[in-house]
User: Which sequence fits this backbone?
C-alpha cells in the first residue's frame, strides 16, 4: 500500500465527516412585523436531518414554530466514513508491515494471502459505500433544497404570505467526497493485481507457466511498491529483493 491509499482515504472521510452546511429562507408575512427575512438552517454530518430544526414565524403576531427537516441519511454517510477510516488504518498497518517485516511477510504464505483477501474486500466495500453515499447525497440535496424546505413551514402554505429562498448549501466538499470514494475504489481494485502476485497461488501458477504471467504484469502501468522495473525485453520484473532465487522472475530475466 502506498501513500496514495492513505491520502485518498483521508480526503474521503474528512470531506464527508467534516461537513456542515447552511441554507437560508425568508418568510415574508402579510403582517410585516412577524416576518423573518433571513432564517438560517444548519445541518451537518451524519445527516440525521429529522433532528435538525429551526424556528420559523407563524405570521400570527410573535408566534413561532419549530420546524424539522425530513429524512435520515446517516446510515450511508456513516458507512462511507467507516469504510474510509478502516481502509486508512489498514493501509497504514500494511505499509508498516511491508517496510519493517518484509522478510516475515514473505516467508509465511499466510501474510500475502490475508493481504489479498482484505484488499479485495476493501475494493468491494469502497464501491458499495461510495455508491450508497452518492445516492444518499443526491437525496440530501433534495431534502435541503430551500424550495423544498419552504414547503415544511406552515406560514408558507398560506397564499398571502410570501416565502423565498436566499441560498442553498455548498456542495463542493460533499461532491469531492463522492469522487474520492470512487477514486479509492479504482486505486484498491488496481492494487488487487499487485497483492495477488505475492500470493502462493500466483507464484505456483507462474512457475508452471514459465513466467508467462509475469509478462502480463508489464501491461499495468501502476506500480504500487514503486520498485518494479522493465527489463530490455519489456518484461515487468521486480527488483532482486522481491524475487525468490530461481523463481519465475529471474528465470524470465535470463531468457
Ligand atoms: C430570524 O431567524 C433567525 C434564525 O434563523 C433568528 O436568529 C432571528 O432572531 C430571527 N429574526 C426575527 C426577527 O425573529
Assistant:
Amino acid at each position: 500500500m502506498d501513500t496514495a491509499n492513505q491520502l485518498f482515504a483521508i480526503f474521503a472521510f474528512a470531506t464527508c465527516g467534516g461537513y456542515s452546511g447552511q441554507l437560508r429562507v425568508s418568510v415574508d408575512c402579510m403582517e410585516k412585523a412577524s416576518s423573518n427575512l433571513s432564517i438560517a438552517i444548519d445541518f451537518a454530518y451524519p445527516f440525521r436531518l429529522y433532528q435538525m430544526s429551526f424556528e420559523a414565524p407563524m405570521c400570527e403576531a410573535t408566534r413561532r414554530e419549530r420546524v424539522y427537516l425530513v429524512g435520515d441519511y446517516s446510515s450511508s454517510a456513516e458507512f462511507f466514513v467507516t469504510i474510509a477510516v478502516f481502509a486508512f488504518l489498514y493501509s497504514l498497518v500494511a505499509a508498516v508491515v511491508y517496510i519493517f517485516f518484509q522478510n516475515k511477510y514473505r516467508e509465511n504464505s499466510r501474510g500475502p494471502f490475508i493481504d489479498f483477501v482484505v484488499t479485495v474486500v476493501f475494493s468491494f466495500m469502497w464501491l458499495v459505500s461510495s455508491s450508497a453515499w452518492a445516492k444518499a447525497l443526491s437525496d440530501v440535496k433534495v431534502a435541503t433544497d430551500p424550495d423544498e424546505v419552504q414547503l415544511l413551514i406552515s406560514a408558507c402554505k398560506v397564499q398571502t404570505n410570501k416565502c423565498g429562498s436566499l441560498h442553498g448549501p455548498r456542495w463542493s466538499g460533499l461532491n469531492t467526497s463522492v469522487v474520492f470514494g470512487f477514486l479509492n475504489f479504482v486505486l484498491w481494485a488496481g492494487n488487487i493485481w499487485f497483492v495477488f502476485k505475492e500470493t502462493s497461488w500466483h507464484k505456483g501458477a507462474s512457475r508452471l507457466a514459465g513466467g508467462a504471467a509475469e509478462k502480463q504484469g508489464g501491461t499495468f502501468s501502476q506500480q504500487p511498491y514503486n520498485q518494479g522495473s522493465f527489463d530490455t525485453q519489456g518484461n515487468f520484473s521486480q527488483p532482486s529483493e522481491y524475487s525468490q532465487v530461481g523463481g519465475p522472475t529471474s528465470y524470465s530475466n535470463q531468457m
Summary: The pocket of 2-acetamido-2-deoxy-beta-D-glucopyranose is lined by residues 36, 39-40, 54 (CB under 6 Å). The chain has one domain: 2-199.
